[in-house]
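Input/output pair, single chain:
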Amino acid sequence: MIQQAALLDRRPQPMGSDVPLPAPAPDHARRIEELGRIILAYSEVTDKLQRSHEQLTQTVQSLREEISEKNRQLERKTRLAALGEMAASMAHEIRNPLGGINLYASLLAKDVSDRPASLEVVRKISGGVKRLEALVSQVLQFAREISLNVAPMDLSQTVAQSIDFAADAIVRRQIHLDVDGPPTLNVNADALLIGQVILNLLLNAAEAMETGGTLTIRFGAPAEPPARQFFISVSDTGPGISPQAMDRLFDPFFTTKATGTGLGLPIVQRIIEAHDGTIIAANQSGGGARFEIRV
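Output:
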C-alpha cells in the first residue's frame, strides 16, 4: 500500500494546478526583452517617418501652390507689359491731334465769345479734350517704367498731406474720417509716389460711399511678414466689391465708375510692386471694402 501511494504521488498533475511552472532561462528572458526594445524602436522610427512624410507632403503642396501663383503673376505681368507698350504707342498717336483740337477750340471760343450758346458748345469740346488728355497721361504713366526716388521720409506726414488733398471729396460727402497711426514713422520710400497711392485709395473709398459713411485709414510699423517697413490700410463702409469685380480690380481699363478710366488701381499696384510690396483688396465682414498695403 505504501508503494502504491508513492506511485500515485508521482502521477502528472492536471492543468491549472497550483504547482509552479519552471522560470524561463535567463538567456530566453533577455532575448524577449531585447525583442521588445527592437519593436518599440521600430515603432518610433515608423512614427517619425510618417510625420516626416506628412510634413514633406505639405511642403510640396505649398511649393506647388506658390509656383502656380508665381506663374500667374508672371503671366499677368507679361500680358500687362504687352498691353502697356500698345497703350503707350496709341497714347502718343492720340496726344498730337488732341493738342491741335484744343488749339482750334480756344481760337473758336474767341470768335463765338458773343454767342453764349455756341460758346457753351466750344467749352464742352475743350472739356472733352482735357479729359482725353488726362486719360492719355494716365496711360503713359501706366506704360512707362516706374523710377523710384527712394529716400528717408515720414509716412505720417505723407498720410496727412494725402488727406488734405482728398479733403474736398470727404467733406462734400459728409464722410467721417478715422485716422489711426503714429505721429511719426520714418521709412525709406518714394514719398511722392506713396502719397499718390494713398490719395488714390482715399478718393476711391470716398466715391464708393454715399453721404455719411466712414472712411478709415490705418498705418504703422509691420507686426508680421511680408511687410518690412510699414503697412497702410484704407477701408470704407460702402457696398463693397462684387465677386465679378474682385478678380479684375487691378486690370488696366477695368472700372465700375461711369467716368472712370480704369487705370488708378493698376498704377497704384505698379507703384507698390516697384517698392517690392503687396496690395490686397478684400470685403469687410461688416460691409465695405478694404485695401491693405504692405511694404
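The longest strand covers residues 214-220. Residues 4-8 have pLDDT under 50 and may be disordered.
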